[in-house]
Design goal:
This protein is an all-alpha fold and 48 residues long. It is 60% helix and 0% strand.
Length: 48
């Protein structure tokens, strides 16, 4: 199925996997921020 025998192929496969993992972690972080209760944290001074 996958016949990868060159350095560039492995490099781009690793880079793509790293990007997919980073985007997944960022999406999970944003979902957690979205569903967290924002009423607990006090407002910083100077904000309206």
């Amino acid at each position: 199925m996958l016949a990868i025998n060159g350095f560039l192929e492995w490099f781009f496969l690793g880079l793509l996997s790293l990007l997919v993992v980073a985007v997944t972690l960022f999406g999970l972080y944003m979902a957690l921020q979205l569903f967290r209760n924002p009423g607990r944290s006090p407002r910083p001074p100077g904000s309206l």
